[in-house]
Structures are given as structure tokens and as C-alpha cells.
Amino acid sequence: TRLTPHVPFPETEDVLLPHWRSAIAFDPPPTSPEMERWPGQSYRSPYPLSENVFIVAYSFDPLIGEPNANPANTYGLYLADAHGNKELLYRDLNISSVWPMPLHSRTSAPALPSILAEDAPNEGVFYLQDVYQSTASLPRGEITHLRIVQVLPKSTPHANNPTLGAPNASPGKQVLGTVPVEADGSAYFRAPAGIGLAFQALDETGQAVHMMRSIAYLQPGEHASCIGCHEPRHDAPPALLGNAMALERPPSVIEPGPDGSLPFSYPLLVQPVLDAHCIQCHGHERAEGLAGQPPLLLTGEPEGRYTVSYNALVDRVSYAAWGRGPFPEGNSEPTTQPGFFGAKGSRLMVLLTEKHGDVELSPDDLDRLITWMDANALFYGTFNYEDQARQQRGERIEGPDLE
């Protein structure tokens, strides 16, 4: 039942969209009951008190987002009925008031005492029941470790201000290290509290098979658990005949990652490997190309926002970036496909596996390159402009801004 026939639906040639878009023309013009005419009076978010009486937000002036100037009193809260009557209940001249909801006073529920110790350390414990409980197929026995990645809070306004690397609008990251995954897929480990954490499931080569694209937090002294690695959300936890293997021992302590991964710094993490093994053939005196391609320089001097070697290698890495085309050709899909991002999906890793140029990398050197690729091929580990300048010169910084 239409209760506000005096407010027409859009039947003009254009529908005015929010200010960050231009007007869109429709042919034929739309007649949608989902949206009333813009600009002009508007109702929204009614809350029924009975079959015929409502509280509702109402505006008799142009709405915010319109090209026209907006008055301060756009939306107010009204009592309205099914006969077209309405009475103002509340209007704030400085802000719009929407989503009205009736409330009444009641006795507060008793406050539950905290179960955390007052002197709890600034860390908690994670328990993963079975990493193979996953919406994506992960062959049992493939995962040996979890990489613990700290996702940094954005400390400057707007995406890419400043950039952290080639991936468009990528969040900042640094690698805390790794913890073991038992043969039954379980993991049990300590982790710092109060910071955003993401987990990567690694195979025996240290490459990420599956990556977490959201974050988890621990409070001091908290014990948290999950069923699996992006397990189907409607499934119940599988029954265990006994304790998970990881629970038969004390929680693991994070094993730190390679130098240059905390704080994250491409010049400290990757460039030493290139200097030791690559610039003999890809330096200023001798710059060979790959398979008939132009000369490839892998030196560490600054070039633009990054360095020569970073600019040369980053397009050979599969990284997540906003707006870079659909999966599988692009790399901006919202969910992770196992083996697509990071070292597993990178042309650079193929060259390393094939021992390009007969280069024999030590396990530590290979881990440095894999860690860089799995950390979304970033260059900087901070949003701070001055610290970024130091990192580009190969200097160390104390750590990223966390506020």
C-alpha cells in the first residue's frame, strides 16, 4: 500500500546519483517504487507502531548528495499515519536524523565480571582445529606452517597516499613469522594482542598455498579458535576422537621471518639476494634480458617511487590489487584462490624453481624472495613519508606508525 502518493517516483529522463557520479540517462525513463524523485521531498526508514501509524524520517528539502545546495535540516523524525497526516517529533538543525526506533526505559542487565586476569600479558592464544576444513580444496598433508602477517592500520588519508608498492590500494603489511601446523591440520600458538593479524597456509617450500584476506584480533589473555581455513560457514565443527595434535603441547611461539620482513622493507629483504646472485648478469656492466626481452637491471638505486630492481620484478609477481581486472586473468577478485596470489602464482617463482642462470639460492635467500611475493609484493612497510624516504635509501626504520 502506497502511503505517500504525493511524493512521485522518478519519471524524468535522468536519475540524479550521489555527487561522486554524474547523472545517468535512462531510455525508457524508470518508474521504480524503490526510489522517490530527486531532488525534492522524501521519506525513508519507516518504523511501524501499528498497522496504520509509523515513525519515519522525512525531508521536504533536497537531499545530501544532490548538486543543489543542501539545507542543514534535511531529515527530521515524524509521526505519520496511513491517512497522510504527519507531525514533527524531532529535528536537529545541524544534522539529518534517520532510522527512528522507539525505545523505553528498562533495568540494566547485570554487568558480567571479566574472566581475564588483570595482569594478563599483551598477547593471546590462537587454536586452529584443522586447516584443511576449507571452502577451497587443500590436499591433506600439504600445509606445514602458518605465516603470521600483521596488517597495518592506515595512518594517512585516502588510498595510495602514499603508495606502499605497485599493488593499487594495498593495505600495509609486515611479517611476524611462522608457526608449525601439525599432521592433522591443527595449530596452536601465541600471538600479540591488539593488532590486526592475517594468516597464510604454507607448504613445505614456505610458499603460501592459501591466504586470509581479512583480519583477526586478540585481546590480552584471550583464547580464540577457528574451525579451519575459510571453512564453510554453515558447517558444524567436525567431531574429534581425541585431542588435536597441537593441543598435546604448549602453544607455539612465532618464529621470526627473514631480515627485512619486520618492519617490511624491500631493500633489506630482497635486494641483498639480488646483489649476491643476480647483478653479475643484470647489473650496469652486463644487463641481459630474459628470453629475448630488453635488458633487465636488478640494481638497488632509487627509481621513481621505488628502486630499479623493484620496478623490473614486480610485474612478474601475482599480487592482489584493487581494480586490476577479473579473476583469473586479473588479480582483484575479493576472495583468495589457492595458488593464485604470491609466489605460487608468480612467473618469478618459476624462474627460481628452474634455477635460472644456474643460480643456486640458499634456503634463507629463497625464503626472502618467497616472503616478499607472498606479502603482496610491497616495497614499503610504513605510510610515514619520512620513513619511506629512509627505506628507499636502504636504511632501517624503527617500525610503522600504528595510530
Mean pLDDT: 85
Helix count?
6
Oligomer: single chain
Main beta sheet, described? 4 strands, antiparallel
What percent of the residues sit in helical stretches (DSSP H or I)? 10-25%
**In one word, what is the shape?**
globular
Write down how many β-strands occur, each being a DSSP E stretch of 2 or more residues.
Answer: 15
SS-based class = alpha+beta
Q: What percentage of amino acids are in beta strands? A: 15-25%
Radius of gyration: 28 Å
Overview of the structural elements:
33% of the residues are buried. This protein is 11% helix and 19% strand. The radius of gyration is 28 Å and the shape is globular. It contains 6 helices and 15 strands. With 403 residues, the chain is α+β, with helices and mostly antiparallel strands. The strands form 5 sheets. Strands 3-4-5-6 form a 4-stranded antiparallel sheet, with no helix packed on it. Strands 9-8-11-12 form a 4-stranded antiparallel sheet, with no helix packed on it. It has a 3-stranded mixed sheet with strand order 10-7-13, with no helix packed on it. It starts with 13 loop residues before the first strand and ends in an 11-residue tail after the last helix. Residues 12-35 and 66-70 have low confidence and may be disordered. A hairpin with an 8-residue loop joins strand 1 (14-15) and strand 2. The longest helix has 12 residues, at 363-374.
List keywords for this structure.
single chain; alpha+beta; four-stranded antiparallel β-sheet; 11% helix; globular
What would you say about this model in short?
The protein has helices at residues 266-269, 271-277, 308-313, 347-353, 363-374, 385-392; strands at 14-15, 24-25, 42-48, 53-59, 76-81, 86-90, 123-128, 145-151, 173-180, 187-192, 196-202, 208-211, 223-226, 302-303, 306-307. By secondary structure, the protein is of the alpha+beta class.
